Amino acid sequence: MNQERAGKKFLRPFLSITGEDEWEENERRKKKVVLGTDLTGKMAVVTGAGGILCGMFARTLARAGAAVALLDINLEAAEETARDIREAGGTAAAYGVDVMDKEMLESVHARVLARLGPCDILINGAGGNQARANTSKEYFEMGDIEADVATFFDMEYKGVQGVLDLNFLGGFLTCQVFAKDMVGREGCNIINISSASAARPLTRIPVYSGAVAALSNFTQWLAVHFAKAGIRVNAIAPGFFVTRQNEGLLYDEDGKPAARTAKVLAATPMGRFGKPEELGGALMFLLNNEAAGFITGIILPVDGGFSAYSGV
User: What UniProt keywords are attached to this protein's entry (predicted)?
Assistant: First the structure.
């Protein structure tokens, strides 16, 4: 018998049944504390939860004791993560949804509310880019228009609109729908997942950079708007993390680092890509109403120094 349990057995005659129940509950809650944050009794909604980074967010929230609603346009991917959470003893349910469709969001919100209760935490992580909204080269050169390269002039309207809608409007609409649960309830949080490209646009992806810049700006606006309503609003701006969406840009088909990867790592003082779990600390800090209770409206970089580096 370990010392902790022996001590508890010794104290048993002096504890009421209520006291024993409280002791057991406290011990269970200690196991759920993740990086100092206990989310027992909270309900969290995560969009983009079928992806690598947002799937990690969902798992971290569940480990900290939150019930988690996983939303993704790819229901199968979201359900896989939800199943992992349930098998680990957590509470999770997956829902297929297009975050650019407000009626669909409202329908899913009603289902989440009936099954898991009102939303306390919203993680807006759905996002992405399209090749139709990119340029092939960093610099425009005379002759490119006639060459077989995608220039600024070739970017398609539908691709541009799609990237803007997914990365900005998707977060905007999701806040409209789920933040209604939070108004007037202390301790609620919205975390938008922006990007290092919001503050300093990366080459070749002008539309994505503009869209996440809009999301960061909206984060600050919403933080002020909800400041007296019990809701803190912040954003996390990841630097370079390898995901399904950018793997093809960072590595060649043979698995070797692409030329762009060398530039990325050279511009990241820590000289490596981030690990998904390294975003979990930022998330847990911002959600901790004791440690971060006076923090709202910030964009927290998690980028290995990328945003601080001038290049010289």
Answer: Oxidoreductase
125 vs 190: CA distance, rounded Å = 11
Does the residue 233 lie in any domain? yes
Contact 163, 129 (CB under 8 A): yes
Look up 208 and say whether it is catalytic. Answer: yes
| CATH number, domain containing residue 93 | 3.40.50.720
3-state secondary structure of 258: coil
Structural domain including 275 reads: 34-306
Question: 95, 157, 208, 251: which is the annotated catalytic residue?
Answer: 208
